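Continuing the batch. This is chain 6 of the set; chains 1 through 5 are on the previous pages. Same settings as before, nothing changed between runs. Recording input and output for traceability.
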Amino acid sequence: MRTHLSAKKVHTFKLISLFVLLTIAVIPAKVLAQTAPSVDSAKTQMNIVPQTSLKPTYPKVVGYVSFILPMVTASTSTTFNFNGTTTIGFPIGVNVLYSDKFGFSYEFTPNIKATKGTSKMNDILFDPGTMFRFQHGFTIISRLAFDTNGRYGFTPVFNQVYLRTKDVNYFVAVSLPARFGNSEASSIGLNLQIGFIFN
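Output for chain 6:
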């Protein structure tokens, strides 16, 4: 009886071994490699291929929206915003970035003027300019200015990104618009601009 049971166990073991061997032969080697990676091979792979941050590719095009407040304008007299008359602009632009240090900006600014309970679309300013980019999100932009009110000139802009997120970067800028032409006295002003750039 014991001999018969031992023979039966040996026969069952042979059948199980044959089944395992056939299963291994049928399953492709790629599947086995993917389903059972060894911990040591994963560590080795991480050591061979170090993780590095991807650098942006250039040229790169980004858009932005903002609003701008002319704080003061000095000419033959000094005019302050919010002193009986309020002017606000809405700069919309596209920056073409050629490197970490240089780019070109195209900006259109429709301006709205409100006074004595009424408001109107006052003018549209087109002011393209070159961008000189520095570390920590600081940029100097030298803009030309062509205004539909007949004035022209240039505008140095000092721009600083103060908050970065996955989708947008928030910035604040101070500009010094110098304007000429249209039979008016030359003027210089101080503007404050706040907006965000799409990543």
